[in-house]
Amino acid sequence: MTAYVIPAHDIVGLPVAGTSDLFPVRRVYCVGRNYAGHAREMGSDPTREPPFFFSKPGDAQAVVPAAPNRVLELPYPPLTNNLHYECELVVALGKGGANISVEDAASHIFGYAVGFDMTRRDLQFKMRDVGRPWEIGKAFDYSAPIGLITRAEDAGDINHAAIQLDVDGVTKQSSHISELIWSISETIANLSTYFTLAPGDLIFSGTPEGVGAVVRGNVLEGKVAGLSPITVKLV
Ligand code: MN
């Protein structure tokens, strides 16, 4: 029998609401600047230029399941003095494909979750300003806490849902999914022209305005109406 020469790594499984089943994570794609207010606060024009994408690792070193009604303790990452939260609607694909049409995109969605695109903003800007990849600012250890996945049919009218993030009980981000520059279906369609998508892929759909720095001890609560909220404490 053929064996792996080192132990094979595990797939991250995100719990699915209302079941004891897990959603197996494959890739983690993220959309940059997909709310006008956030594009402005990042110093760019919120024009409807095509969406752009970056990735985070899909392994357990980056993706951390956040159980409901529990505080997930997340280590403050090294080499930053400016760690930012970005609360986002995460789309979980149940079906893959390339060149998916906008009209057909919704049928590829398994469900949705709340996630934080944690960002070492100082490193991201340092790389951005010299035209280098964002990896060290975006794709670090524990950079993608994600809550329970709610099946699409149980998530209500997600395209108009409220999205909110509080830090220590003070609301910092508050918007609606309807404010997305590129809708969920448009995002899936566009992303699938660059990459063949597959079941298990996650898409962080972008963050509203109001991002900011957090420090050890801060408690971050993220909510999207209709989905299970997540609570993260930086330690
Ligand atoms: Mn983001």
TrEMBL record:
Cited InterPro entries: Fumarylacetoacetase-like_C (IPR011234), Fumarylacetoacetase_C_sf (IPR036663)
GO terms for MF: hydrolase activity
UniProt entry keywords in alphabetical sequence: Hydrolase, Metal-binding
Cross-referenced Pfam families: FAA_hydrolase
Gene3D superfamilies, alphabetized: Fumarylacetoacetase-like, C-terminal domain (3.90.850.10)
SUPFAM superfamilies: FAH (SSF56529)
Limits of the Fumarylacetoacetase-like C-terminal domain: 28-231
Protein name in the entry: FAA hydrolase family protein
Source organism (scientific name): Duganella margarita
Lineage: Bacteria, Pseudomonadati, Pseudomonadota, Betaproteobacteria, Burkholderiales
